[in-house]
DNA sequence: ACGCAAAAAATCGTATACAATTTGGCATCT
DNA sequence: AGATGCCAAATTGTATACGATTTTTTGCGT
């Protein structure tokens, strides 16, 4: 129906205003890697930080827990999720499973203006890659994920869109934990190739490129068990 | 690794005990259609019903809201979700998109004992179809969904498993709202055919059957806008 | 000094309390 | 009689309070 401005921000449904803000703020912080995996998120601290009571802080943390971005342990508190290698594999397996499908849907209903929107995203991404500094790096991470999210939005299925939001966010955590190469985001040129394939209506090629792209990200991971943040193991190698 | 007993009940992670029980109880009630779409779920009532404070009742309702089974409206309260025709289409589109993938994964790693487990589920399903009465009908609905959920469990991907749980639950709501035929569950024989195809290692056929199966369920729906439970439109036709 | 036990502090789990908003009813006016 | 405005009841939004559990600190004995 409408271009790309699908139901991304959710009109007004999610009940209270405060919880939503807090949830989104923390989620962004996690996705942009300003919060490291394993970081403790005390209810009181979160509440104080956002000037709300523990009630709302707790609600936000529980929501994030449902998305798999924070893990809450009974009577111990909430922590930024620390995905295990197995979880990481499942996250990427899930992406391999659903992204081709989303791509086909998106390609089927994509409009010219949406293609232009995608190209603009890519341009912005390139610009950020060129820049230096933490801020640019964080924006680059977000932009890289936004490409996949925009594709999901174009597909027109808000449910798949939400699934992808979760998977992209969790992928960011995985890359933060297990990523090897310094390049924080995934191969940028691959995004462009996918858009080109879509534009040429070559669906099979687009899907193939997408799978290759995901495999490429995954190949950059060193999926070995890592215990708590910094202990003996850190000095053994 | 292990047969079918994957991480279905989630060991102990989901924080508090009470909230989880309430959430599961209400979810079951919705899936088994003891709660109709649109039914108001007052926080006080829910709390009294389960002998807990509004705090826990509210937490449970918010969790269900995140799963799409209840919709909470600011300052108005929580209601059993009333999926729109468009939402219904998206739910089934999502299922068509991911179930073949799950099926392939499941077929790839299925063991003999898991096949037997599936066959046993089918047997139980047939038995329930034969029986009469509300209780049997409800059990039949649950069994029908359990087939798809078990397949997801066999696939070994807990993330996709959770997605499927949400989709199956929401499908139940959609069928309750828009289903036409009296037969509450989807074609039982189709489940059996899928298992056979898996057993014969005929993946393409299994996927084809699965898509056909989902289409079959969807074809039984009358996806036309229905406004609130009973108003003028109810008398116009 | 080191290890262990008990107390103190911090943090979570749940209930209750109060403020804000909505809903329904009653009185009043046209 | 019907419509309108206002007040009371009910319900949600948020904060605070209290009990339970975990973690840290402290102090003692060996």
UniProtKB/TrEMBL annotation, chains A, B:
<dbReference type="InterPro" id="IPR036388">
    <property type="entry name" value="WH-like_DNA-bd_sf"/>
</dbReference>
<keyword id="KW-0238">DNA-binding</keyword>
<dbReference type="InterPro" id="IPR036390">
    <property type="entry name" value="WH_DNA-bd_sf"/>
</dbReference>
<keyword id="KW-0804">Transcription</keyword>
<dbReference type="InterPro" id="IPR008920">
    <property type="entry name" value="TF_FadR/GntR_C"/>
</dbReference>
<dbReference type="Pfam" id="PF00392">
    <property type="entry name" value="GntR"/>
</dbReference>
<protein>
    <submittedName>
        <fullName>DNA-binding GntR family transcriptional regulator</fullName>
    </submittedName>
</protein>
<keyword id="KW-0805">Transcription regulation</keyword>
<dbReference type="Pfam" id="PF07729">
    <property type="entry name" value="FCD"/>
</dbReference>
<feature type="region of interest" description="Disordered">
    <location>
        <begin position="1"/>
        <end position="20"/>
    </location>
</feature>
<dbReference type="GO" id="GO:0003700">
    <property type="term" value="F:DNA-binding transcription factor activity"/>
</dbReference>
<dbReference type="InterPro" id="IPR000524">
    <property type="entry name" value="Tscrpt_reg_HTH_GntR"/>
</dbReference>
<feature type="domain" description="HTH gntR-type">
    <location>
        <begin position="16"/>
        <end position="83"/>
    </location>
</feature>
<dbReference type="InterPro" id="IPR011711">
    <property type="entry name" value="GntR_C"/>
</dbReference>
<dbReference type="GO" id="GO:0003677">
    <property type="term" value="F:DNA binding"/>
</dbReference>
